[in-house]
Fold:
Amino acid sequence: MKGTPLRAVEDGLQLEAWVVPGASRTEVVGLYGESVKIRVAASATGGQANASIVAYLRRRLGCGVSIRTGTTARNKRIHIDSSDLEGVARVLGIAPG
Structure:
């Protein structure tokens, strides 16, 4: 993927994310290469960080969110059940793709 970490796909939106577990709080902190960097307060053990990311994004975006790839890695491909590219980008503080 070139450019923006958020793009429209056939069944919603796709977000490329670089996740840093064990942070003091969960937040989107900006871009990291071609991904959006998300700090997560939960640890990476037992899938806690993944669950925290999904819950955080669902709250912020108000729609369904799932991790499609990267469940055991820092680099994740996240699916967002929305067609509102500009609205999601605005909430995340990134440029729409």
